[in-house]
């Protein structure tokens, strides 16, 4: 089935907006996505009708809020094929990974190894660096080849008895590479390592089932999948989460407190200290409903088409280089550089035409350095983007290239 | 800052600015510089090193090196021209508005950092230089 994109666009109020008098082409979905009316309405309905604290009072409003909050966990769990107990709400992917890195630190000893890849986002590097500093464990990096794909042989060789954690991104937010998660996870398990999957760029875009992948821990962000900001998800297998120490302590995460000690609440509440983001959870649940109705297979197919189109159009432009694998091996984004033009200038010129893209290192400085570039311009797609928007993107990039060349000639 | 943000390509990438980007003035190492300050913008990776020769509180010569977007590099080039002959005090008093007037653009809240990188480097360098002078006295 194909998506009815015109109808979908009607659901997103912001897409009617003009910037500088031009229609908005929002192509920065890897950073954050826009929100449909259904999500915005669910949030205001919560505040207008049943705003209250959860898991505490017996009054009616609290019952309704608690029900909605718990149901949000169930919906998100269903979306990725998990059990409700295995889904804890956090602020974002970054927080989820921090919880994991902090908890797994207690199992790390001097000489142990943490395996990451060269294409990680800062949020899947820095928490592990800190864990390594605290414990004396060592970080190793699986390398990428000239196509921006993981060198699987090298990766397999890096996994050994000392490897305790293998943490990697499912889809690269710069290269677009879709990593063979199942294969990597199996290899890690064979060595007895725990796997942490950064699914910030995969859960929103491709049908995914944690049971099938067999990952132990997984992190993703609600705001990158039509949900509100301030909502993230930490998935963990029940037996893994049970063993993990929480990062935050306080109310709601305990079952019993005395003056001397406390017992942790059951899963997933152990990881949700303090009054949670109830409105955010309600919004995320509405986002999940929306995506499920559209169908993740369809979303994925639509993005594949757009990505292929963008790849074909952009790669024809002289002096333009797209980073990462060919379209059939990538997620819905394309990061590129234009010879002789700084990525900020490309982004600014696109912005002037109402096209929102992102320039820079995309929070992956080590990768940018490895590629030998200051940064790239990235266009990233979602279910509401159209072929016309891609055409416009390519046309403006072409104009920019020509314009910069004409300046260079003056020289 | 009530002024309208510059957004049209033609306005943001004015001919004069692009000329400074493509044909930078005063680019290179300044031998025997009294002031030398390197600064960068961690978000976008723009870099400049601003160098000055100073005597009796007056800028005798100015040069820069760097790499980055058109706005950051053109601003550095234009600022070296602006600096020559000025009193150090005058340079230290320069504000955001002054730089934007020289560049003749208003790049908006994100890219303003690119526009101001060179001035910030120049001023930090000068402050360091003056502190050293005071100590020597
Ligand atoms: C691959 C990847 N990991 C992690 C993150 C961090 O997500 P957040 O900023 O929501 O914590 C992002 C998004 O910026 C990402 O693309």
Supply database-style keywords:
heterodimer, A: 411 residues, alpha/beta, Aspartate Aminotransferase, domain 2, Aspartate Aminotransferase, domain 1, 2 domains, 41% helix, 17% strand, B: 137 residues, alpha+beta, 3-stranded antiparallel sheet, 6 helices, 18% strand, globular, binds pyridoxal-5'-phosphate
Going across the major beta sheet of chain B, what is the strand order? Answer: 1-2-3
Record field, number of beta strands of chain A: 17
What's the alpha carbon Rg of chain A, rounded to whole Å?
Answer: 22 Å
The appropriate CATH architecture of chain B is Alpha-Beta Complex
List the chains of the largest interface with their residue counts: A-B, 22 and 22 residues
Residue windows where pLDDT falls under 50 for at least 5 positions of chain B: none
CATH topology of the largest domain in chain A: Aspartate Aminotransferase, domain 2
Largest sheet of chain A: 7 strands, mixed
CATH class of chain B: Alpha Beta
Residue share in helix of chain B: 40-55%
Instruction: Tally the helices of chain B.
Output: 6
* Structural class by sheet pairing and helices of chain B: alpha+beta
- Amount of helix of chain A: 40-55%
Terminal CA distance of chain A reads 54 Å
